[in-house]
Amino acid sequence: MEKYLKILKKCSLFYGISDDNLLKMLTCMGAKIISFDKKYTIFAEGNTAKYIGIMLSGTAQTVQMDYFGNRSVISVIKAPHIFGEAFACAEAESVPVSVIASEPCEVMLIDCGHILHTCSNNCGFHQQLIFNLMKDLATKNIMFHQKIEITSKRTTREKLLAYLLFRAKEQGADSFEIPFDRQALADYLEVDRSGLSAEISKLRREGILECRKNRFEFLTKL
Amino acid sequence: MEKYLKILKKCSLFYGISDDNLLKMLTCMGAKIISFDKKYTIFAEGNTAKYIGIMLSGTAQTVQMDYFGNRSVISVIKAPHIFGEAFACAEAESVPVSVIASEPCEVMLIDCGHILHTCSNNCGFHQQLIFNLMKDLATKNIMFHQKIEITSKRTTREKLLAYLLFRAKEQGADSFEIPFDRQALADYLEVDRSGLSAEISKLRREGILECRKNRFEFLTKL
DNA sequence: ATAAATCTGTTGAATTTTCAACGAAACGGG
DNA sequence: CCCGTTTCGTTGAAAATTCAACAGATTTAT
């Protein structure tokens, strides 16, 4: 287990827990490490979600089948990401996705029940673990909610402005940076890249904002 | 406190906790009940998120200001909804929204720290409470994620089919119901209602699906 | 420093969405 | 059963998005 300490410590789930306690805790919770070859199924659709997964090495994909069996890749999982936590915590009776190794990988599996139900001695680091898991879910909630708010606007211009206004407010400054290049921003906003570029140019010509690469600046009140 | 028992028991946060334990627990956690007149601020933007709110009666709105001070209503809160839980659990240093009473209302406030840090006697119902809160966040995560997946499709047709395929799969049947009328479905999919109606008609003419009010049925493999 | 690769802005045509308006159908009371 | 109200489907015109293609700018590797 020790050889995985370095990667485990990068995992938000274990924030603020000392090496010693982490190792003790993993044993106490019966954490298992399993290796999967390429194409092997880590979590199978339709099962109940019992385990939280932690990717230690390699890569996997979240795969979804629709009603007619059309397959689509929802997300890519690399170390040190955790996965399956929402389904496990929601006690989903049947998860709608599979997680499949896209290259050989090592995964730590922890029974979610062992996380949620603190052991009888009510140890402080176990509380920290619950706290971390809760924070992880809550943070994702906020991010999802913000994305929905932004992408629910109907036009590219509105989406872009909504996004930039969030970032400006967040950084509390007239001039601010965004963590995306044009293509990534277009993907986030769910619009066409060229249309996005055109809209940025238009806002520039109108004197509303200025931009150089990832740095934007509002010039006027809307 | 007893007079609010009926409404509190409807709150998912307290699922599976007996009346006795619930009342004891609320006292133990220092839950406060506060009344707000119309237009009063329950949570103010910019503060740290310390409390989880439970609406006991009346109505409030989640309000957001953008960088330039333009105000928009994000959501409406009625009993027995809880609110602020994501910000509190994520330990947001500064919440980006205000919650403002839109009619006189009564709100229960619980310090989130008192929920997350179990009391020294490690009582079982406190674990249940943590469990419920986690489940609430996780369930919302799954719902948000699904909505993002559906609305990230680019055309009305794709959005509609993605949504219907989810519902069909969920109900495991050729014929299935949806919980929306046309306008609500259009809002969920973030498309125009008339365009949605047109698309449904088109799918009908193409022999792909049949529908009568809220009941849909796929006729062919895509 | 140069070449290759990637990113970005522009354009115009084709497709799609939105918007407004209207009538038919469904619903709920009285 | 009739009437008022809401929901639903249709239509055509206006607006916006997507798509493909390309050239200039920027970055990376050698």
Largest sheet of chain A: 4 strands, antiparallel
How many DSSP H or I helices of chain A? Answer: 8
Query: What average pLDDT do the residues of chain A reach?
Result: 93
Beta content of chain A: 15-25%
Number of strands of chain A: 11
Low-confidence stretches of chain A: none
Radius of gyration of chain A: 21 Å
The N- to C-terminal Cα distance of chain A equals 56 Å
Tell me which protein chains meet in the greatest interface and how many residues each side has: A-B, 49 and 49 residues
Global shape of chain A = globular
* Category from helices, strands and their pairing of chain A: alpha+beta
Key attributes of the depicted protein:
homodimer; 222 residues; alpha+beta; four-stranded antiparallel beta sheet; 8 helices; globular; DNA-binding
Report on this structure:
- Chain A is an alpha+beta fold.
- The first copy, chain A, is 41% helix and 25% strand.
- Chain A contains eight helices and eleven strands.
- Chain A has helices at 5-9, 19-28, 85-89, 112-116, 124-151, 156-171, 182-189, 193-205, and strands spanning 32-36, 41-43, 51-57, 59-65, 71-78, 82-83, 97-101, 105-111, 175-177, 209-212, 215-218.
- The longest helix of chain A is centred in the middle third of the chain and has 28 residues, at 124-151.
- The mean pLDDT of chain A is 93.
- Chain A binds a DNA duplex (30 and 30 nucleotides) through residues 154-157, 181-183, 191-195, 197-198, 200-201, 213.
